[in-house]
Structure formats: structure tokens, C-alpha cells
Amino acid sequence: MPISASPAAPPVPPRVLTVAGSDSGGGAGIQADLKTMLAHGVHGMSVITAVTAQNSRGVQGAWELPVEAVRAQYRSVVDDIGVQAVKTGMLASAALVETVAALLAATDAPVVVDPVGVSKHGDPLLAAEALDSVRQKLLPVATVATPNLDEVAQLTGVTVTDESGMRRAAGEILGYGPRWVVIKGGHLPGEPLDLLTDGTEEHWLRAPRHDNRHTHGTGCTLASAIACGLARGQDVPTAVRAAKEYVTGAIAAGFPLGAGIGPVDHGWRL
Fold first, then answer.
1. End-to-end CA distance of the chain, in Å?
2. pLDDT, averaged across the chain
3. C or N: which end of the chain has fewer Cβ atoms within 10 Å?
């Protein structure tokens, strides 16, 4: 009898790692990151840096993990499974920022840094004394940094009120060393406008504004979607444009949960 050929092994999807905090409400943090990765057809992995008690109304508590636990998670995943892109979110303390930055510097993969400073509700998620570590250690290893306007003010002292302010803020952030920066201008009046630049070329990304207050997790989702594009081999402008389109759709489909701000819908395309 003829011997049947062995079935071909299924293709391995690109692998993307999130290094971030856990959001118990499921709208932001590693939960949003992993949902975004699933929606983009990549294999999502996680290094948890902190655990939050969080819901639609805000953050009721946060506990960072020990440096050793974060380092062990990272090495466990990267050394065995490998990674095609990394996304960072809530890092909580100077010690964790510096630990993660050192790990990233030794990893041959693009890095998307979401310099999380405050939650959607205004709750602090980064110790004030960690800002220098973000500037001096984390941003220099970023392929793309994705600060919102509050984070821009935290990191640079620049208060952005218009497009010229976004360009100035981008220059300040690029001065810390990332290859590209996305200044997210969604909190300005008018159509949501983001600026992507590497200091040489500029891409102004516009989208319709949806009348939906359920936007919890937008920053995590955008950064993760960019990482997914980079893991698939896209260049930075292509990855950022696709991520912006994905997040815009997720905001339009955002839904109410609890008594406060609900999440975007990560599965809106499905």
C-alpha cells in the first residue's frame, strides 16, 4: 500500500509580546493587547508588570510585580518561543522601566513604547520618579513611541493645543531617541488627528470622530496593533495607518459596561 504523506505542519503566526499591566475589567492593559493581537492573526504573549483592580469607573488599586518576576517572564518567553515585535505599556516604577529597557535593548525585534502615565480616568499608573527612566532608558530603544497629549506634557512639559504644538512635541520626544513617534491628538477639538514622524518625513493621520464615550483601552489597542503590523513585516507608516484604521473602527463599536466608560470593541472586524 502506498504510504500517505504526513500532513504539513500549520504555519506559525508572527509572535508579538506585550509587557504591561493587567486590567481586571478587560478593557485595557494586557487584556486589550491580547485581544488586539488575536484580531490581527498573530500569536500574543504577555509579561505582566503590575496587577490593577480596575473597572469602568477607574483604578481602585495597583500592585507592581517584583523585578525578578518580570525578568523571568520575559526571558522564559523570548528565549524559547522568540518574538517578532514587542509592545510596552504600564511599567509602574523606575526599577521596572530600567529592567524592561535593558531586556528590550538585547532583543532583536521592533519595539512599540506606549509611555503609559495615567489611566483613561486620570489615575496615575507611573511613579513620578520614573519619568527620567522613561526618557533616558526606555524611549531610546523604541522603534515607535505613542504618547497621548497628557503623556507628552508629562515627559516634555509641552502643552499641545494645535497642530504646530503637535509638531513641536514630536521633536521633543524624538530628542529622547525613538526612531519614530506618534503624537496622538484625539483630545483636541475637531477630527481626531495624529502626527507620525521620524523627524524627516511627516504623516498626518485623520479619522472621523465617533460620538461614543466608550473608549477605554484605545492607547493600548493602537500600540498593540502597530506592533502586529511590524511583526508582519510592514514598515512603520504602513503599520501605523492600519492600526489607526483598526482603532477607529473599534471606537465606533465601543459598548457600555458598568457605570462608567466602556471599552472599545477589539473584535469589531470579526
1. 44
2. 94
3. N
3-state helix/strand/coil string of the chain = CCCCCCCCCCCCCCEEEEEEEEECCCCCHHHHHHHHHHHCCCEEEEEEEEEEEEECCEEEEEEECCHHHHHHHHHHHHHHCCCCEEEECCCECHHHHHHHHHHHHCCCCCEEECCCCECCCCCECECHHHHHHHHHHHHHHCCEECCEHHHHHHHHCCCCCCHHHHHHHHHHHHCCCCCEEEEECCCCCCCCEEEEECCCCEEEEECCCCCCCCCECHHHHHHHHHHHHHHCCCCHHHHHHHHHHHHHHHHHCCCCCCCCCCECCCCCCC
Which among 2-16, 67-81, 146-160, 209-223 has the top mean pLDDT? 67-81
Minimal CA–CA distance to 27: which of 57, 50, 49, 48? Answer: 57
CA 27 to chain centre: 13
- In terms of Cβ atoms closer than 10 Å to its own Cβ (0-12, 13-18, 19+), residue 187 is exposed
pTM of structure = 0.95
Instruction: Give the catalytic positions in this structure.
Output: 184, 215, 217-220
Q: Which value, in Å, is the radius of gyration of the alpha carbons in the chain?
A: 18
